[in-house]
């Protein structure tokens, strides 16, 4: 009998503890839900307040004095200005286009400092979406808050809206295009300055003198070569070749060298304009799998 009472008591204690824990957990959830509701309530009240502000159009030059003259809530200004957003805390606006200083830092001459608060949360990637060569319509609420959104003893200008921002997708596309242009420009510069300029014969001679130093010197580099067209072949991969002047079948015997150019990576005009036996000058990349094994230059371009 005593054992049953003890067992009953133990089971009851387990249920009691479980019930107490459940009550505490439920209370915590209720507190979190209440805090979340209060947070959203404050947010929507603030949005309603910002919408109700009487925004007036003024010039950027008038902005500082206009903000300083505000003595009560409900005022704001709209300016046409160049805009910088160097940090999540603040904006700079001004009537002059931003400039890059000698230190590399971008700034607006005589720019006006304004708070940003949570602007980045509402408009992600704001800094990237702003272009320095154009003006924007900027809405500035005058509030007794600092750039962090905390209470302030004086009124400050806080940016609440910017019209004309590019979308995030546009920013990404511009970044991709810019990288492609930079890559293309870098490639063009490399092609303008080949590490070797000369005849096929002299280039091959250097290779045969010391293949190890040749590879270290020219692998993946751009070279400009002049040689004689040996002929054209239109098949699965259309190509043509240039040599030191010897016939193609003498390559392995007398040291002539053949440089093959795939039609996919070379202008079609070569196959239409040139003939067998003509001199030709090309610029291309010395690749391991191409030239060093079979005398093929990659990414070729016609010089003359």
In short:
The chain has 304 residues and is of the alpha+beta class. The chain is 41% helix and 30% strand. α6 (200-209) crosses α7.
What does this structure look like?
With 304 residues, the protein is an alpha+beta fold. The chain folds into two domains: 54-167, OB fold (Dihydrolipoamide Acetyltransferase, E2P), CATH 2.40.50; 196-302, OB fold (Dihydrolipoamide Acetyltransferase, E2P) (Beta Barrel), CATH 2.40.50.140. 41% of the residues lie in helices and 30% in strands. It is built from ten helices and 14 strands. It has helices at 2-52, 60-68, 119-122, 126-129, 168-192, 200-209, 211-218, 251-254, 269-273, 291-294, and strands at residues 54-57, 75-87, 90-94, 99-100, 106-107, 112-115, 136-145, 151-163, 196-199, 222-233, 239-243, 259-262, 279-286, 297-302. Strands 1, 2, 3, 6, 7 and 8 form a six-stranded mixed beta sheet that branches. Strands 9, 10, 11, 12, 13 and 14 form a six-stranded mixed beta sheet that branches. A two-stranded antiparallel sheet has the order 4-5. Strand 7 (136-145) and strand 8 form a beta hairpin. The longest helix is centred in the first third of the chain and has 51 residues, at 2-52. The N and C termini lie far apart (111 Å). The relative contact order is 0.07.
């Amino acid at each position: 009998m005593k054992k049953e009472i003890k067992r009953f008591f133990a089971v009851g204690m387990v249920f009691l503890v479980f019930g107490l824990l459940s009550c505490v957990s439920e209370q915590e959830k209720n507190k979190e839900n209440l805090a979340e509701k209060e947070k959203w309530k404050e947010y929507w009240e603030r949005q309603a307040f910002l919408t109700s502000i009487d925004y007036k159009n003024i010039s950027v030059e008038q902005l500082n004095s206009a903000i300083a003259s505000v003595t009560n809530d409900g005022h704001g200004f709209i300016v046409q200005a160049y805009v910088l957003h160097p940090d999540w805390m603040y904006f700079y606006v001004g009537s002059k286009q931003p400039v890059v200083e000698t230190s590399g830092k971008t700034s607006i001459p005589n720019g006006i400092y304004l708070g940003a608060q949570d602007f980045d949360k509402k408009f992600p990637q704001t800094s990237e979406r702003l272009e320095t060569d154009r003006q924007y319509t900027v809405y500035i609420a005058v509030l007794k808050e600092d750039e962090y959104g905390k209470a302030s003893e004086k009124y400050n200008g806080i940016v609440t809206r910017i019209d004309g921002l590019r979308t995030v997708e546009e920013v990404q596309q511009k970044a991709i295009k810019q990288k492609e242009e930079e890559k293309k420009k870098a490639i063009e510069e490399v092609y303008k300055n080949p590490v070797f300029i000369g005849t096929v014969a002299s280039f091959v001679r250097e290779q045969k003198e010391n293949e190890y130093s040749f590879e270290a010197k020219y692998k993946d580099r751009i070279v400009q070569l002049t040689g004689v067209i040996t002929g054209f072949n239109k098949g699965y991969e259309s190509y043509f070749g240039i040599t030191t002047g010897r016939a193609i079948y003498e390559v392995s015997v007398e040291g002539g060298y053949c440089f093959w150019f795939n039609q996919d990576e070379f202008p079609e005009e070569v196959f239409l304009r040139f003939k067998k036996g003509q001199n030709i000058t090309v610029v291309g990349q010395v690749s391991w799998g191409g030239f060093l094994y079979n005398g093929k230059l990659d990414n070729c371009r016609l010089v003359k």
